[in-house]
Amino acid sequence: MDPAKLRELLERLREGQLTVDDAVTELRDLPFVDLGYAMVDHHRALRQGVPEVVLGQGKSALQIVGIARELARSGQNVLVTRVEHEKAQEVLRELPAFKHVEMPRLLVLEQASIPLLSDKPVAVLSAGTSDLPVAEECAETLRLLGASVERVYDVGVAGIHRLFHKREALERASVVVVVAGMEGALPSVVGGLVAAPVIAVPTSIGYGSALNGFTALLAMLTSCASGITVVNIDNGFGAAFAAARILRAARKE
């Protein structure tokens, strides 16, 4: 249930197209439905503007099916993150209308229109090709949240001229998300070039002392470029949500 659907329901009630009992029936699942193993939050779109998203990691295929089916029943779009190939195939056998986006490990059902949050795109940068699964998780999540996305991939500091070649894309962006592993230097460079908000995403890519992303995380947290926001390691999804919140707040001003 999102604001548009609730407004439509109340208009139908006011115009006599719906009885009070019918309205109560349609609203019966607010604010949540208890499936026993999950409390499915149907109220989230009213509070935050977007429906609940399902974290597939740690859940069985049957649990994902149950939660996703309940979310889909309300007519909203559904996003499930962190779903590996084998588990995704199990889910798709039960929910064939869903699409598995392989690289970012997402399951997606699109059945409602997605209003555009801004005329200006969000630029999603990756330092290297190895960072693409996290960058694509961010980019696909942004698209489902209503942001247009401009991808700028493989522009890490080992060949900084590649980034400068994409300077125009950075300058027209509403928000810039920078995904990097290894030493995590790229967000500092970008943060010194642009005025837009910069969200840094450390990845677990790197050898030995990269420490599965902790080196990049600490580098981003201690960046000399002022005002960079940092999300957790490999959290492209969280970066997308942060960017969408920025765009949604700017639209209300």
Question: Brief description of this entry?
Answer:
With 253 residues, this protein is of the alpha/beta class. The chain has helices at residues 3-14, 20-26, 44-48, 61-73, 85-94, 132-145, 161-164, 167-171, 186-191, 214-221, 236-252, and strands at residues 32-34, 39-41, 54-55, 78-81, 99-101, 106-109, 122-126, 149-152, 175-180, 198-202, 229-230.
Characterization of the model:
This protein has helices at residues 3-14, 20-26, 44-48, 61-73, 85-94, 132-145, 161-164, 167-171, 186-191, 214-221, 236-252; strands at residues 32-34, 39-41, 54-55, 78-81, 99-101, 106-109, 122-126, 149-152, 175-180, 198-202, 229-230. It is an alpha/beta fold and 253 residues long. The chain has two domains: 3-109, no CATH class; 122-252, Rossmann fold (3-Layer(aba) Sandwich), CATH 3.40.50.1970. The strands form three sheets. A five-stranded parallel sheet has the order 8-7-9-10-11. A four-stranded mixed sheet has the order 3-4-6-5, sandwiched between helices. The chain has a two-stranded antiparallel ribbon with strand order 1-2. Strand 9, helix 9 (186-191) and strand 10 form a beta-alpha-beta unit. The longest helix has 17 residues, at 236-252. It is globular. The mean pLDDT is 88.
